[in-house]
Amino acid sequence: MVDYSFKEDFKYKHENPYHDKLGEFGEFVLRDHEAEAFKGLWNKDVFKDPVNNEAKLFLEIGTGAGHFMIDYCADHPAEHFVGLDYRFKRSFYLAKKLSVLNLKNFRYLRAKGERIEFMFAENELDGIFYFFPDPWPKTKHNKKRLIQEPFLKSAYKTIKPGGIFYIKTDHDDYATWMEREIKKCGLFEIVMQSADLRTEHPDHLLSKYTTGFEKIFLEQGIKIKAFVLKSKKEI
């Protein structure tokens, strides 16, 4: 059964006080369905950058505490970056952190990653970052894993021809699951795959940045699994 979040008529329902608190940061934060009003219009109407209206646009799903988002945006000021997470409290405290930065090349969404094709138009994204998602390790919960056919189809639709999808995980079983689902779906070419990213690809983009969770995993001696996927979509 496909998660209801993927359906067009899905409605966010909650009574969380942090939803209203996030409204304090309306200059750069979009909540729930607010982002879906800008499908196909991110560079033009959201970033409103007349000098760089054709900037590359990247999405990070599961931004967490924002370590990667902040560092990547600082290193790539000419690119536009959208961070996304679904946790209320985590999103609020990250928004507070983001609000004091001088960077202007980002926006933040408190929304569900399952809904990316309702937030971004076909071929609107240059790439997606997805780092250290909840592995849902119990067999009965595996169906909650994002990396499977419905989401891969949404990612394929929103990413431009030849666009890149970057993934990192600490979880061996989820990495195996990901490989199987990616190959089964057949929409992306696996251009890099590693069972020990830091040892095998120390100079890669994915090794340059360390998230908060990743730091903990590395300190515990856990090897980082990684995939770099390239859309097979033709121009």
What does this structure look like?
With 235 residues, the chain is α/β, with parallel strands linked by helices. The protein has one domain (4-231): 3-Layer(aba) Sandwich (Rossmann fold). The chain has ten helices and eight strands. It has helices at residues 17-22, 42-46, 67-75, 88-99, 116-119, 149-158, 172-185, 197-200, 205-208, 212-219, and strands at 29-31, 57-61, 80-85, 106-110, 125-131, 159-169, 188-194, 225-231. An eight-stranded mixed β-sheet has the order 1-4-3-2-5-6-8-7, sandwiched between helices. Helix 3 links the parallel strand 2 and strand 3. The mean pLDDT is 95.
Task: Offer a quick outline of the entry.
This protein has 235 residues and is α/β, with parallel strands linked by helices. It is 32% helix and 22% strand. It has an eight-stranded mixed beta sheet with strand order 1-4-3-2-5-6-8-7, with helices on both faces.
Q: What's the CATH C level? A: Alpha Beta
Physical arrangement of strands within the biggest beta sheet = 1-4-3-2-5-6-8-7
Structural class, by secondary structure, is alpha/beta
**Average pLDDT over all residues:** 95
CATH architecture grouping: 3-Layer(aba) Sandwich
Low-confidence stretches: none
CATH topology: Rossmann fold
The outline comes out as: globular
- Number of helical stretches of at least 4 residues: 10
